[in-house]
């Protein structure tokens, strides 16, 4: 799925492209297996609490120590849960000196949300047998 929310093309007098700025451009290869993996990893209360905290923190994310302080989870337990979210590509980590900063992979999570809502309110034309079972 390709999604472009905003594109700005600037042309000079010779009609050649001078600059291109793309905002919120992402490519998502979300499928049922990727979505199931991501949702399964978020199915744990500690992981879901970590995810929600990182969403609140915004794009700058939080150091692991700050997550630990906010949630009151032992360091080894938190590391285990973060590893699961990193392996599912829900969270990214970057090293800053001696600490690790965690951030939500917003493009991937947005891809999950788009996948989940892709057919929203599209109707059930393909499933008319199901509707007949309910009526009859």
DSSP summary, beta strand count: 7
* Estimated structural class: alpha+beta
**Overall 3D form:** elongated
In percent, how much strand structure appears in the residues? 15-25%
Mean pLDDT: 80
Low-confidence stretches: 1-28
Order of helices and strands: EEEEHHEHHEEHH
**Strand arrangement in the largest pleated sheet:** 5-7-6
CATH architecture of the domain at 28-119: Orthogonal Bundle
Instruction: Give the CATH superfamily of the domain at 28-119.
Output: Winged helix-like DNA-binding domain superfamily/Winged helix DNA-binding domain
End-to-end Cα distance, whole Å, is 39 Å
Walk me through what this model shows.
There is one protein chain. The protein is elongated, with a radius of gyration of 21 Å. The chain is an alpha+beta fold and 136 residues long. The chain is 47% helix and 23% strand.
Structure summarized in a few sentences:
The chain is built from six helices and seven strands. The protein is of the alpha+beta class.
List keywords for this structure.
two-stranded antiparallel sheet, alpha+beta, disordered N terminus, 7 strands, single chain, 136 residues, Arc Repressor Mutant, subunit A, three-stranded antiparallel beta sheet
